[in-house]
Structure to design on (698 residues):
């Protein structure tokens, strides 16, 4: 078997990133779109941690910042979702088409 | 193979750190068995203690003083019909109890029962424990959702909100204890002389830091350690969904909360997970604030005499319990209908006394000491759980949120900042 | 301690992560998606452990799986999605999106494997990371080099808290 090198981790991260992008671009349900964004952030994290295997700890510190960001993003995103659901009774992405109701 | 098994006996590491698979598996098995026995004992003790608090007798029929009641209950649960609601989400319904049980049991691989008596010692020990025990809520939430019924859904909604709120205060309280591992303290608070000076998250490292600094963290920087301990011990009751924070399963409002639709074996898995989680969070509290496996006054009362005296504790507690059982056997009514019960109780007492005698043998008595003190401290916390349930009325949901966000969180933050300030200056 | 059976665990955990990711974007039911995402997150935590990053793994479990995902499940149950399950799940541009995202992923892989510059960068010998003091070193880096970034992150979290409260509250 091939020994596991950082390249393997990078390819896994690329695959996760692509899957997350597909989710963001194609799904209608806002909750699942937010989850796909989490997938993308995780792919980035995996990249950073894999690079930290080569260049030392800085990547891990960055990964922690990204996780912090993800927490903030999830809180605000879900807050917007609840506000939107209260006004329009729907959670579909393509029905968010009015600037003001 | 055999040499790798025996060579571990002379090493001063946990099996995980030594990389010894055999002993690691043995430890996991021992912890699993011990937990199951503890949960069974806890079941009996809770009913008995609650009953005596309410001036009742509690279970008395199955076995002497209801000692066999938990076993009878377990048998009943195992052979009960396993019902799945008609429109339940089958896969999630099936998975939910497993998630809770796995999360509750997995935490125990880093619990230090002694300097070498842990499955492994992780660099991120306490973080791992908090993280994995917080996964248990996923099982509760999904159980309520998958039941496709109103009461469980409300129960799981409450549970998720409650967990997220109290985890914050809990984490901050833990951080202030972790901070103490690296602080010596100066001035009036100068207590330690040989503190290691470097902080650690490892469970074993935290207990060792308490030994080095010659103080339990509950009493360090008085009263800051006590405040953090208090915040944690309130938050841990909320985290395990126990009274007075048992809103997710409030039986007067929600029938049985998130596990209304569960029956038989699946329900007993939730039961097992709840009690294991209680033991797990109590172990965190004991490790962080009450010196883990350390016996009382390990630095002050040293010398051969004190060592001998403290090492007699495990044996004599078992002997005392055995004597208690024998005494109650003698006080049983002298009637032929009670003959089997009396003999059974006397036999149980004799068994306990035998274990006690065995623990007085010198090599064994030194080996089990750490485990004994750890378990004794955890048992105090478990008794507190029963005591809370017997005395406190249940919180309303808005009160629960208020306590979590407006009282515990600022208190924990203030204690953390004060700890840092006192420790540095 | 050296990680054991790295190859097996890498393929096992990546298969788990990818499977979870596929389920996240294809399930009709949002709760199933959330559970699949939790599987992915836990598998990634295992992979971080293999990369000598135990602290990041711990943060991943406690913050992502224990915090953010519980929040997601809470919101999913709060906004009742039974109607959403029966509706169309994908929008009209799904084919274009699929091609574009797949192309993006393939581009990444090609850059990682074919590009001379990148493979030159990746030919570096592995850094010596001490697993036993990982937490301490991450802490020193966070409060040393990245002090300002750390403070800004705390500000960001404050803004997020206020924003979430403003969004979700009916009347302020």
């Amino acid at each position: 078997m091939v020994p596991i090198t950082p390249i393997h981790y990078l390819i896994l991260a690329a695959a996760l990133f692509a899957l997350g992008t597909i989710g963001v671009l194609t799904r209608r349900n806002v909750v699942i779109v937010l989850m796909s964004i989490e997938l993308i952030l995780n792919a980035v994290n995996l990249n950073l941690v894999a690079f930290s295997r080569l260049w030392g700890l800085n990547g891990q510190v960055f990964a922690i910042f990204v996780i912090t960001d993800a927490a903030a993003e999830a809180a605000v995103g879900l807050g917007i979702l609840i506000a939107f659901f209260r006004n329009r009774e729907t959670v579909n992405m393509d029905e968010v088409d009015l600037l003001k109701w | 193979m055999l040499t790798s098994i025996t060579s571990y006996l002379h090493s001063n590491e946990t099996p995980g750190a030594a990389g010894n698979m055999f002993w690691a598996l043995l430890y996991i098995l021992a912890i699993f068995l011990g937990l199951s026995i503890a949960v069974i004992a806890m079941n009996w003790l809770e009913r008995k203690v609650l009953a005596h608090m309410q001036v009742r007798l509690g279970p008395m029929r199955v076995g002497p003083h209801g000692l066999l009641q938990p076993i009878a209950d377990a048998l009943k649960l195992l052979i009960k019909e396993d019902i799945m609601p008609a429109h339940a989400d089958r896969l999630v319904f099936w998975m939910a109890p497993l998630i809770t049980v796995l999360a509750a049991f997995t935490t125990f691989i880093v619990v230090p029962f002694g300097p070498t008596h842990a499955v492994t010692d992780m660099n991120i020990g306490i973080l791992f424990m908090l993280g994995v025990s917080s996964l248990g809520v996923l099982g509760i939430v999904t159980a309520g959702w998958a039941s496709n019924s109103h009461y469980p859904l409300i129960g799981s909604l409450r549970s998720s909100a409650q967990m997220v709120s109290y985890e914050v205060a809990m984490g901050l309280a833990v951080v202030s204890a972790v901070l103490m591992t690296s602080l010596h303290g100066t001035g009036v608070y100068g207590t330690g002389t040989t503190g290691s000076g470097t902080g650690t998250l490892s469970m074993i490292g935290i207990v060792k830091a308490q030994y080095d600094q010659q103080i339990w963290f509950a009493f360090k920087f008085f009263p800051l350690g006590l405040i953090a301990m208090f915040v944690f011990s309130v938050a841990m009751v909320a985290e395990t969904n126990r009274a007075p924070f048992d809103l997710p399963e409030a039986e007067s409002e929600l029938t049985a909360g998130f596990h209304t639709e569960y029956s038989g074996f699946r329900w007993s898995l939730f039961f097992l997970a709840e009690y294991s989680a209680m033991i797990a969070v109590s172990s965190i509290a004991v490790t962080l604030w009450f010196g883990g496996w350390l016996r009382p006054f390990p630095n002050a009362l040293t010398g051969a005499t004190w060592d001998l005296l403290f090492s007699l504790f495990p044996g004599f507690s078992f002997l005392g319990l055995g004597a208690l059982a024998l005494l109650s056997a003698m006080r049983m009514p002298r009637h032929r209908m009670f003959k089997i019960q009396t003999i059974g109780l006397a036999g149980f007492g004799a068994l306990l006394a035998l274990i006690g005698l065995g623990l007085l043998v010198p090599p064994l008595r030194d080996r089990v000491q750490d485990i004994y003190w750890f378990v004794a401290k955890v048992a105090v916390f478990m008794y507190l759980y029963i005591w809370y349930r017997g005395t406190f009325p249940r919180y309303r949901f808005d009160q629960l949120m208020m306590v979590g966000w407006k009282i515990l969180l600022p208190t924990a933050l203030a204690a953390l900042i004060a700890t840092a300030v006192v420790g540095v200056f | 301690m050296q990680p054991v059976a790295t190859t097996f665990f890498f393929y096992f955990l990546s298969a788990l992560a990818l499977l979870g990711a596929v389920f996240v974007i294809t399930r009709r039911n949002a709760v199933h998606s959330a559970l699949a995402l939790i599987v992915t997150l836990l598998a990634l935590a295992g992979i971080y452990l293999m990369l000598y990053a135990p602290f990041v793994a711990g943060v991943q479990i406690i913050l992502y799986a224990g915090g953010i995902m519980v929040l997601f499940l809470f919101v999913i149950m709060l906004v009742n999605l039974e109607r959403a399950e029966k509706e169309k799940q994908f929008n009209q541009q799904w084919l274009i999106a699929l091609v574009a995202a797949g192309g993006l992923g393939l581009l990444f892989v090609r850059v990682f494997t074919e590009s001379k510059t990148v493979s030159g960068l990746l030919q570096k010998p592995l850094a010596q990371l001490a697993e036993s003091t990982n937490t301490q070193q991450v802490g020193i880096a966070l409060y040393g080099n990245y002090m300002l970034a750390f403070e800004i992150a705390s500000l960001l979290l404050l803004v997020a808290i206020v924003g979430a409260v403003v969004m979700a509250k009916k009347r302020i």
In short: Chains A and B do not touch (no CB pair under 8 Å). Chain A has a mean pLDDT of 84.
